[in-house]
């Protein structure tokens, strides 16, 4: 060990940050550098470096470290369409992180999540901001700026999650997200880059999945794009346990040293592996260095990124660290404001809302008297449920809408002897449980006596001890599996634990326990009372019925679990129908981290509201909006579809080719992107669009003719009316919030750069504004357009293909998948189905007599070239010899048939799956 350094340069504030950082990195030994590359960074006492840990979860509040203010989920914050409010929430969360350092909170925070919400079935949907990449980037930048602060030093160091192409939990560590160049540059990267370019986020976390066949943790885009976008050194941290996948589940490399060396060379700086046990990781890095797979320069570069963030946090500056505060009155008020402004009024027919002259309200449903938290929530200091918030204003009656049941096995009933003891069979009548349906076939049983849920004990016995389903491994949910196909609705059923698939059995002493043997014990369900009927009776006796339904953030859609469909749980659908039939003055409130296909309610329930899970002040926020003390001001940042049938496959990331998201979807959504009603109806005038240099300014007058205040989100979209490729049906360019009193009028002004109209040109391999007609669309949502105006901006003519181009730059494909050209960089296209093909439009064959491809195949294969259609006679046949492996690409050459001159559409067709092509060249 080297001697202690006295007065080290890195602690001298008179030096520049660059000088301080360079001196610190240079002073480290090789072993000290290696010790800094794990999540739990080793201290270096001789240089005065303390230990440091990356990764404090702060998605919508400080998580996992005890009591902290719980704000609405990120999707709910996004629904405010208010970057300034989002920034203030980020500031409050940073305060609480700083105040919780004595609990173990570190200042590198893992938030925000910037994956655009391509598919609403994604289990982590509530973590994101929007399906629109521009809006995602805007709001995530605001949150990150709040977390980081505006001072010369960072208050916390925000980390963007998760790079790249990550919207599925199903097999998330082994599936590959196919991102063609246009999808990458027009959809994915615009969500990730703004917070980096603004300097608001200073770190990035790659995702678990592969992208175009290469693990995201090894993506060359980390160095080529992310670091080029960041104004300062960028820290790249791995996701938890993801490095081990590189040579484990993914099998991309043969061993740890090879995989970890590649990761460092690709840009990974910090390994989140094996929790606080860094030994194996550091051994892999030492071995990689010994083998020559890593160099001292590689280590120095990674360590610089690690220490740069600590320097910018002020860790090496003299003086005290910044202070924070937890659970202050200001934070509580902000939680209420955020929850109130996140509520979205989806439907309001018949004047039910706002509530007036109401004395008695029935507050019904499984979410009516609970505030649910998700995996990334903190522990709220208190909660206000919907029932409690309304009860502060009027008389309330309540029922959760769940059936009460008894379980019997033949003639013996299930009982709960004493609180916390295992359930058992006895000869009595048996105890009553509430049966709660959370969708996806998952149920929970809640003791009527104690209000606690059935849970698995350490010995596999079952007792009602849990406050509800939760934890990384959710062990409180059951599936009802018919034990006799001829049985009725009461059973018999096997009770099957969802997490393990084990059945509930009965031990010899009568205790209920999970068993390994396949038979288990069948149970009959004796319904004591119908929850929907009891709720309907309460609704009938009230002036208004408010039924609160939605998802449980820990069940049927969460990290590690995608949803299979968009439906509300069956019991909740039945409950909504029963309440509506009992009281026409019904309000449906949906509290969820995802959209639902509530098609029946959208036509039959007079008023429908949605919010994400709204945090500790949810109930008061809901009451503020229901009674009209606050205007409904939230807007959807995600399309609500009528059915999962409107969606492409969960693993189809080509939003352009599949027609996904509001940008490309041409169907009729249930509720469109940007939708949200108020209690006042605006009147829009004629918009105008003015182009001045490279700036477009859209102005539109908006009036409030009503007798209530109006809060309107004026949205501006553009549409390109002609192109040789598929372009968005509409694309959001900006918005403005207007607050108008009764009778007031104002002009909304929204500006954007003409360069924002560019699309990624796969021929030129850069962004290009096409020479094409366009128009501006102004309105209340992507579907509710109140006016249009022509938009004339200069552009470039379409390019034609000549020479050599990347096969991944196709216009259309069928039966292909993107794959790596080499392990390190480059993309190719593999033909995966018989008759698979690629289409390259506007290919200039003038003067060309031959064609070459750089290709790979696992057997001798033919690729056919067709012109102007896939079924025309082949213009050439390329013979690709079998290679020695997936990265063994070689040239195949063919002569073009006579008469192939001119600008033509070129198809490349392969009848035998397995071949791949990287480039195409005309000679």
TrEMBL record:
<dbReference type="Pfam" id="PF01915">
    <property type="entry name" value="Glyco_hydro_3_C"/>
</dbReference>
<keyword id="KW-0732">Signal</keyword>
<dbReference type="GO" id="GO:0016787">
    <property type="term" value="F:hydrolase activity"/>
</dbReference>
<feature type="domain" description="Fibronectin type III-like">
    <location>
        <begin position="712"/>
        <end position="782"/>
    </location>
</feature>
<dbReference type="InterPro" id="IPR036881">
    <property type="entry name" value="Glyco_hydro_3_C_sf"/>
</dbReference>
<dbReference type="InterPro" id="IPR001764">
    <property type="entry name" value="Glyco_hydro_3_N"/>
</dbReference>
<dbReference type="InterPro" id="IPR036962">
    <property type="entry name" value="Glyco_hydro_3_N_sf"/>
</dbReference>
<dbReference type="InterPro" id="IPR026891">
    <property type="entry name" value="Fn3-like"/>
</dbReference>
<dbReference type="Pfam" id="PF14310">
    <property type="entry name" value="Fn3-like"/>
</dbReference>
<protein>
    <submittedName>
        <fullName>Glycoside hydrolase family 3 C-terminal domain-containing protein</fullName>
    </submittedName>
</protein>
<dbReference type="InterPro" id="IPR002772">
    <property type="entry name" value="Glyco_hydro_3_C"/>
</dbReference>
<dbReference type="InterPro" id="IPR013783">
    <property type="entry name" value="Ig-like_fold"/>
</dbReference>
<dbReference type="InterPro" id="IPR044993">
    <property type="entry name" value="BXL"/>
</dbReference>
<dbReference type="Pfam" id="PF00933">
    <property type="entry name" value="Glyco_hydro_3"/>
</dbReference>
<comment type="similarity">
    <text>Belongs to the glycosyl hydrolase 3 family.</text>
</comment>
<dbReference type="InterPro" id="IPR017853">
    <property type="entry name" value="GH"/>
</dbReference>
<keyword id="KW-0378">Hydrolase</keyword>
């Amino acid at each position: 060990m080297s001697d202690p350094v006295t007065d080290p340069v890195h602690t001298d504030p008179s030096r520049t940050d660059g000088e301080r950082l360079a001196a610190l990195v240079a002073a480290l030994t090789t072993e000290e550098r290696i010790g800094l590359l794990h999540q739990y960074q080793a201290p270096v006492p001789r240089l005065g470096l303390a230990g440091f840990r990356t990764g404090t979860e702060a998605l919508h509040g400080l998580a996992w470290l005890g009591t902290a203010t719980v704000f609405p989920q990120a999707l709910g914050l996004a629904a405010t369409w208010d970057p300034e409010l989002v920034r203030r929430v980020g500031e409050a969360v940073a305060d609480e992180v700083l105040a919780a350092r004595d609990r173990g909170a570190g200042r590198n925070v893992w938030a925000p999540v910037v994956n655009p919400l391509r598919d609403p079935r994604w289990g982590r949907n509530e973590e994101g901001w929007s399906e629109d990449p521009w809006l995602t980037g805007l709001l995530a930048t605001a949150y990150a700026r709040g977390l980081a602060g505006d001072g010369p030093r960072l208050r916390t160091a925000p980390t963007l999650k998760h790079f790249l192409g990550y919207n599925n939990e199903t097999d998330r560590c082994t599936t590959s997200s196919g991102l063609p160049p246009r999808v990458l540059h027009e959809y994915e990267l615009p969500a990730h880059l703004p917070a980096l370019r603004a300097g608001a986020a200073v770190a990035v976390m790659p995702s678990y999945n592969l992208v175009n066949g290469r693990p995201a943790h090894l993506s060359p885009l980390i160095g080529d794009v992310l670091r080029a976008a960041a104004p300062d050194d960028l820290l790249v941290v791995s996701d938890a346990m993801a490095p081990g996948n590189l040579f484990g589940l993914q099998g991309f490399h043969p061993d740890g040293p090879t995989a970890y060396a590649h990761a460092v060379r690709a840009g990974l700086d910090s390994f989140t592996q094996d929790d606080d046990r860094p030994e194996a990781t550091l051994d892999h890095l030492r071995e990689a260095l010994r083998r020559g797979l890593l160099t001292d320069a590689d280590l120095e570069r990674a360590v610089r990124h690690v220490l740069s963030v600590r320097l910018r946090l002020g860790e090496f500056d003299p003086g005290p660290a910044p202070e924070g505060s937890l659970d202050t009155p200001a934070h509580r008020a902000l939680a209420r404001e955020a929850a109130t402004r996140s509520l979205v009024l989806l439907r309001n027919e018949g004047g039910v809302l706002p509530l007036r002259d109401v004395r008695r309200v029935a507050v019904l449903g499984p979410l009516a008297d609970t505030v649910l938290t998700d995996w990334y929530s903190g522990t709220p200091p208190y909660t206000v449920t919907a029932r409690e918030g309304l009860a502060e204003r009027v008389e309330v009656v309540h029922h959760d809408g769940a059936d009460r049941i008894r379980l019997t096995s033949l003639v013996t009933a299930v009982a709960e002897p004493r609180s916390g003891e295992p359930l058992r069979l006895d000869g009595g009548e048996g105890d009553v449980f509430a049966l709660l349906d959370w969708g996806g076939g998952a149920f929970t049983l809640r003791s009527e006596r104690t209000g606690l849920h059935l849970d698995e004990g350490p010995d596999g016995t079952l007792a009602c001890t849990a406050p509800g389903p939760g934890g990384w491994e959710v062990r409180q949910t059951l599936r009802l599996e018919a034990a006799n196909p001829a049985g009725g609705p009461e059973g018999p059923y096997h009770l099957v634990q969802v997490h393990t698939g084990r059945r509930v059995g009965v031990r010899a002493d009568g205790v209920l326990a999970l068993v390994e043997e396949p038979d288990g014990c069948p149970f009959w369900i004796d319904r004591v009372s119908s929850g929907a009927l009891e709720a309907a009776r309460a609704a009938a006796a009230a002036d208004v019925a408010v039924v609160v339904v939605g998802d449980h953030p820990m069940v049927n859609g969460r990290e590690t679990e995608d949803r299979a469909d968009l439906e509300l749980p069956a019991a909740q659908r039945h409950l909504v129908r029963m309440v509506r039939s009992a009281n026409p003055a019904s309000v449906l409130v949906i509290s969820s981290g995802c959209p639902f296909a509530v098609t029946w309610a959208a036509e039959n329930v007079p008023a429908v509201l949605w919010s994400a899970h709204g945090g500790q002040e949810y109930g008061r926020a809901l009451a503020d909006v229901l009674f009209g003390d606050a205007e409904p001001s939230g807007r959807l940042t995600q399309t609500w579809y009528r059915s999962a049938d409107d969606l492409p496959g969960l693993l189809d990331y080509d939003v352009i080719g599949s027609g996904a998201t509001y940008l490309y979807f041409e169907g009729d959504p249930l509720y469109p992107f940007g939708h949200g009603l108020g209690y006042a109806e605006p009147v829009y005038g004629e918009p105008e669009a003015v182009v001045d240099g490279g700036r477009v300014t859209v102005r539109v007058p908006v009036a409030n003719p009503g007798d209530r205040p109006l809060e309107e989100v004026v949205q501006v979209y553009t549409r390109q009316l002609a192109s040789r490729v598929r372009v968005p049906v509409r694309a959001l360019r900006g918005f403005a919030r207007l607050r108008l009193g009764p009778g007031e009028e104002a002009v909304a002004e929204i500006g954007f750069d003409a360069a924002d109209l560019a699309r990624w040109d796969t021929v030129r391999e850069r962004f290009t504004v096409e020479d094409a007609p366009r128009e501006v669309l102004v309105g209340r949502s992507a579907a509710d357009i109140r006016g249009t105006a022509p938009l004339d901006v200069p552009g470039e003519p379409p390019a034609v293909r000549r020479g050599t181009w990347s096969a991944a730059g196709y216009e259309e494909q069928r039966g292909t998948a993107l794959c790596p050209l080499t392990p390190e960089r480059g993309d190719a296209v593999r033909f995966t189905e018989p008759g698979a093909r690629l289409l390259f439009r506007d290919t200039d064959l003038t003067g060309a007599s031959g064609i070459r491809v750089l290709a790979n195949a696992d057997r001798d294969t033919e690729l056919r070239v067709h012109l102007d259609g896939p079924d025309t006679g082949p213009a050439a046949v390329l013979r690709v010899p079998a290679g020695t492996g997936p990265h063994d690409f070689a040239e195949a050459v063919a002569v073009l048939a006579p008469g192939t001159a001119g600008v033509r559409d070129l198809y490349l067709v392969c009848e035998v799956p397995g071949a791949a092509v990287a480039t195409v060249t005309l000679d």
